[in-house]
TrEMBL record:
Annotated membrane topology: Multi-pass membrane protein
GO cellular component: plasma membrane
Protein name listed in UniProt: Multidrug export protein MepA
Ranges annotated as spanning the membrane: 12-36, 48-72, 93-116, 136-157, 169-190, 196-215, 235-259, 271-294, 315-342, 362-380, 392-412, 418-438
One Gene Ontology molecular-function label: antiporter activity
Species of the source: Clostridium fermenticellae
Lineage: Bacteria, Bacillati, Bacillota, Clostridia, Eubacteriales
Chief location bin: membrane
């Protein structure tokens, strides 16, 4: 049986296990890039260094956003193409995605390099933190092409039905990053620059691995020169579906800027460092949820494209259950052992520990429902309803959160900053539940083989 055909025939539960476990492991290992860097920086360089690195998050988020714009958009279109048994068109999407990843990331690198100092200043960098931030991000931006190509094409490996291969990407890169962090920071004394160099080298290795897969004999889809010529309809299809995760990344970047400014105003440099640690801890639990998204997306996309709506509903239900269990686990761990988690990053600064523990418990107080919200938003993306997916993602990260970050600190000072996250999580989850309720009602009216014309129209973004 062809690998892509399995998506329409095998048990949904088995498929979700086969696709999601490698994706979850891969995302967990990927989270080590962020977490291990911060642990080494916090323990060896110091608290202000964590604050400096935290100030660079908006730039890193934007770089990743462009990779997701093409990688996620391309993989969703490819999943639908394979479900429609149109392999040649899927390969055209792969070739166009590859070129787009290179061109866009080169442009981002040039712009970030030119304007790095004013960017960091506008993000809230102080005299105490700007040099740390500059040393770190000036190296990271030069590796953005490598990062974007590796991450973007890895999404497509999963979309063509090879989740274990996609998992290997993370399993190769993260251990290398950890070893190089220790070598460059602890042994050679390169400090914060060492963390950045370690990240770029490990990303280079994973990028080579991904490219070798598509250029070798084991991939279903091949990178071919004749598919490198950009086609307007394909580019628009990729961008239209990838716009949702891209917009959410841009939103996350904007939120980080507003967040850092509020933290600097009401808590100073240490509060920015505290938020960096909180983000690291949250990432540990968010990444597995994103892994569930990555694992379920090709299953949902393929079966939606093949008009197998009962299988779509089952995949959605199981993904929501697993995503919710992960977020509940994160909520429990944060409330049971907050101090132990925080002291992984820095044991020497008691003030930083106290600020972070307090902020962590408040900021993640609604984390138990985040899994449902994230998985449900991803469902709409997987079936090609990019606008709804974008709105639901933005509702949590921008539409509600940014106003809360502006309003609540005026009333509650630093506590208001910590409160903004849970208020946004709760409200966005309610909105998402309403949208999902009506979507499931629509699916309940469909039997396999019906509404083909409606499905064709919903897939136009990827069918042109």
């Amino acid at each position: 049986m062809d690998r892509s055909e399995r998506l329409g025939k095998e048990s949904i539960g088995n498929l979700l296990i086969q696709f999601s476990i490698p994706a979850v492991i891969g995302m967990l290992v990927n989270s080590l890039y962020i977490i291990i860097d911060r642990i080494f920086i916090g323990r060896v360089v110091g608290a202000l260094a964590i604050s400096g690195v935290s100030l660079t998050f908006p730039i890193g988020i934007i770089i990743m956003g462009f990779a997701m714009l093409i990688g996620v958009g391309g993989s969703a279109c490819i999943s639908i193409r394979l479900g429609q048994n149109r392999k040649d068109e899927a390969e055209k999407i792969l070739g166009n995605s590859f070129i787009l990843l290179i061109v866009i990331s080169i442009c981002v690198t040039i712009l970030a390099s030119i304007f790095i100092n004013p960017i960091l200043t506008s993000f809230g960098a102080s005299e105490n933190t700007i040099e740390y931030a500059r040393q770190f991000i000036s190296i990271i931006v030069y590796g953005s092409v490598i990062q974007s190509v590796g991450f973007g094409l890895n999404n497509i490996i999963r979309a063509e039905g090879a989740p274990k291969k996609a998992m290997m990407t993370a399993l190769i890169g993260a251990p290398v990053n950890i070893l190089l962090d220790y070598l460059f920071i602890c042994v050679l004394g390169f400090k914060i620059r060492g963390a950045a160099v370690a990240t770029v080298i490990s990303q280079t290795i994973t990028c080579i691995w991904v490219l070798s897969y598509f250029l070798g004999n084991h991939s279903l889809l091949k990178l071919k020169k004749e598919n490198f010529k950009l086609e307007k309809n394909i580019v628009l299809s990729i961008v239209s579906i990838g716009m949702s995760p891209f917009a959410m990344q841009v939103a996350a970047s904007a939120v980080n800027i507003v967040l850092n400014k509020s933290l600097a105003m009401y808590g100073g440099d240490l509060a920015i460092g505290a938020m960096g640690i909180i983000n690291g801890i949250a990432t540990l639990f968010l990444m597995p949820i994103f892994g569930i998204n990555q694992g379920s997306q090709p299953i949902i996309g393929f079966n939606y494209g093949a008009n197998k709506y009962k299988r779509v509903k089952k995949a959605l239900f199981l993904a929501c259950i697993v995503g919710s269990l992960i977020s509940v686990l994160g909520f429990l761990v944060v409330n049971i052992a907050p101090t132990a988690l925080v002291q992984l990053f820095n044991k020497n600064d008691e003030n930083l520990t106290n600020i972070t523990v307090h902020g962590l418990k408040m900021y993640m107080s609604m984390f138990a429902i985040v899994g449902f919200q994230i998985v449900s938003s991803n469902y709409f993306q997987a079936i090609g309803k990019a606008k709804i997916s974008m709105f639901l993602g933005l509702s949590r990260q921008v539409i509600i959160l940014i106003p809360m970050l502006i309003i609540l600190p005026h009333m509650f000072k630093l506590n208001g900053v910590w409160m903004a996250g849970p208020v946004s999580d709760f409200t966005a989850s309610i909105i998402t539940a309403i949208f999902l309720f009506f979507e499931v009602k629509k699916l309940n009216r469909k039997d396999d083989g019906d509404f083909k014309e409606e499905n064709r129209k919903m897939s136009l973004d990827c069918a042109k």
